[in-house]
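Hi L., both proteins are below.
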Amino acid sequence: MRPLVLSSILLSAAFLVGCGADNIQAPSPSARTPLLERGTGGSEAAFDFTAIDVPNALFTSATGINPRGDIVGTYVDGSKRSHGYVLRDGIFTTIDFPDAAGTEARGIGPSGEIVGDYWFAGEPAENFHGYLLTKEGEFVAVNYPEHTNTILQRILPDGTMLGCRHDGDFMDTMKGVTISRQGYAEIGQLASMNNGATPDHRRIVGLYINTAGSQQGFLIDDGVFTPLFVGNIPTTAAWDMNPAGEIVGVYRNSAGVHGFVLRADGYTSIDFPGASATRAYGINPRGNVVGTYATGKVTHGFLASR
């Protein structure tokens, strides 16, 4: 793959038409079912870790990985501008949405399609717009109808995209969304984001702000919304799910911030060796995980391989 900047082509067409919001059941105020209540099976010993740093970057994150092992994320350059990137066969390729002041890459599909968000100079700080970068290198603007902002997190094998939409008040109007060839759908829970799903769309994971004001993960299984958190720790976020139903995310306890992977036999904490904080954001069908870790005041991306 040639190391070039993918910023030359803009496909300025309406991506989808029509808007049909399918509301999924939200949790009742008393719903407190912990899905990560089983014990941890270990930590960094379960993985081989590789650091990911874009050359000369001030900040690097890794947020998505596909079956082939291609990785996407975001980096900040020396002028403090944000760019997306894809790491394929050991080569970093920068992703900049045309004329944008900043770009983030968040998810990558099996065929190499990439989704993320961008923003323009002069806009309010909370404004984000979604995009799809096709495997042919064409940018497609993706905006949820009748709302100011769209953030895209994942793209599934059939092209379905997941993320959230919101307006100027941000969290007060944010809802997790699904965008597919059938149209647009959103969940009923406010302050939510859809972050991952199985290819058949029957299981979706994400995060929301609960009634106590804490960030919490969720699992939607055949339309039923259930809170998801590690043991009795409410500060949890679910960030991705692979076809086998394995979930990755982040939780915070008195010892700090940790990543996790949840499988059928329970959850495993993910802590990059020597890091002060670790966050797991993406998982592929092989069970390989990507995320970020912090050393001092510097954030790096990582790949954790089985």
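That was the first. Here is the second:
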Amino acid sequence: MRVLLWHVHGSWTTAFVQGGHEYFVPVLPARGPDGRGRAETYPWPTSVREVAPHQLRDLEVDVIVLQRPHELEHLAEEWLGRRPGRDVPAVYLEHNAPQGRIAEMRHPAADRRDLVVCHVTHFNDLFWDCGATPTRVIEHGIVDPGHRYTGELQRSAVVINEPRRRWRVTGTDLLERLAQAAPIDLFGIKAAEVARDGWLTAHDDVPQAAMHAQLARRRVYLHPIRWTSLGLSLLEAMHLGMPVVALATTEAVEAVPRAAGLLSTRVDALAAAVRAFMAEPERARAAGAAARAAALERYGLGRFQSEWDDLLEEVVR
């Protein structure tokens, strides 16, 4: 199958393009948000090909995977000369939980019977109002980085992209309180914007493979997210064999089993769990092993690819 999608979310796309299809990603000279092309910091197979906007009208594709409102509203039609869902089969992949006045929000693809909205978590499916548009849930799949946990550094690891801009949504404001339990290493795009001497060290925009190696040396993975979709970095940390201390919000309550660490809405309880893991490395190692086992079972790449194959075949029929 020939699949067109924009390179929007590097980690998710890395898992998606491991399938047995041909994948086309738009590219622009400046490689901005609408034309990033192939990933530069993630390993992608040769089945992913870059295509310039002027080439899209002559490109035969079987299905489009849309991920942003403007792709649905005008970009896909302008570049392809075809309307998604009407002239070419389309899935709208929704990565995010709704933001704003939740009870009043409707999905940008609501009431489109010619589309399917695919959510990445059941939590998101529950909270988005898609009206009459058919919906599916295909939970994340992870390219397994392997069991790499050592936990040799008595520090917490956190991954947040743009932590200052997304301040309360991502729990950036909680980091200073949680750092009282152990110093924090913050990884992510623009992490340096919130660097603090001593208790918080920023690691800005580290490539995925290098980040995995660095995460695995930290004693615990800390997930202070209040309200986003389920972070792929959390699932990657679990695959690495890291114990997890996380806010009991959104899909984290489904993804992280009790044996893997602690989930709570109490910041003092989270800090206490971090202290306990710092003091008891063998307990941390056991919790990390439970986290890895749970992640492999629920978020394996094979299940993810199989479910996506089924959905794409359904849409194209």
